[in-house]
């Protein structure tokens, strides 16, 4: 198993490099927390007055938010560097990756780490732990196991879309606007029960843009609210598997598209 | 890249003399604004996609408010249409008045470009401020194009009264100035510490929340609302929108505009003071 070992070595080096700036580390984590906090602050402020949205109270929304945020942080920690894919390809940094004996994607992912993703992850874990205690879920060992799988699956769903969008860089050269839009849809739309968006957008956000599989479907079945779902129960329980399938497809897409790389000539 | 060329042109049009007529000074500031206006338009895809995202945001807020109202006609005396019109208006305004990319100073200090700025015969804070305003005004052309779509997706309302219609542009200008002065102040922090990105991030979200751009002040929980009223951020989003929709009316409009003016004066004075300290600390990084 050479691949994972090389990945861990390179990722470890990137971590050590970033940990050299302690003060900055702290402030970056705080920055990451604020980034996600403003959405939560909005929901908290309005639910304080309105009580519920789409039949979901603050506890239930916090649980949904916690799953989404943890999945987001879990994806972002290894995957953040994809945000720089434009400059890596345009400025020809990708040339260097091709002449080294490690997969280019691994080198791209480990070029640096962005420690604000630790803020997202920490915020998500804290929120999810608090919300899990108050959410109306029967915490059997099976339910806990499903929650953990769902969080990993959610990270894979978000990651797969970002990876697929990044792969377009080999043909389009500049894909960051697409990726910002994807990120915005996940972080703004992902925090609400899908049913408030109506049937058409609900279908779109399940089968065209698979947002529902990140948090909404797992949270709904865990809280026993299956009756509000527009999709069969088994699909909701299968959400973690969807993440694996999508990530595999996205990886294959990346591999294929990367053959279209044109060096900027260095 | 047209930016360097324009920079030279602007320096040339201003004669280096102790006494400069006001028009020449204005021309120089206008040149700074134009430079940033062009820079903002350089990245077309990013620029255009930010408007697609704005429309998405308006749709999201409209749907969420509808779900929150849950069939009720009014909550706290406010109708759903007023609230969705508020959300539409603040999201549109946000393109013009937002704490994002509030000041180019930290980047210019890091890249050493600040040395060139200081050599120009117009005051540095003035250059930065007019540049920031130029950058913000780049949103105007597409805002006009996006407006009908925004009204279709969200909700539009005519100004609540003639007074509201007349006061709105004034309040919007006040919002723009308060926001840019805050950005200028924050940007000048980079003369003391180079790494401001984390602090900037935190500032942006605090500013966004307390500005009322997401939750109107009238729906904020008691203590939060009090805090929001005492902070300058409400003057950047809530004030113009509430004036327009008639939630601030009559003598209240004068008070709200007075509060904006007071913030402009206070922040302006503070900026001048901070700059008088900062100029002695300028350390150009080999630009």
Automatic annotation (TrEMBL), chain A:
The chain crosses the membrane at residues 26-47, 143-171, 192-214, 234-254. This is Transporter. It comes from the Bacteria. It comes from Streptomyces microflavus (Streptomyces lipmanii). Keywords: Membrane, Transmembrane, Transmembrane helix. The keyword Transmembrane helix applies.
UniProtKB/TrEMBL annotation, chain B:
It comes from Streptomyces microflavus (Streptomyces lipmanii). This is ABC transporter permease. Keywords: Membrane, Transmembrane, Transmembrane helix. It comes from the Bacteria. InterPro entries: ABC-2_transporter-like. Pfam families: ABC2_membrane_6. The chain crosses the membrane at residues 45-68, 133-154, 166-194, 200-219, 226-246, 252-275. PANTHER family: INTEGRAL MEMBRANE PROTEIN, SLR1174 PROTEIN-RELATED.
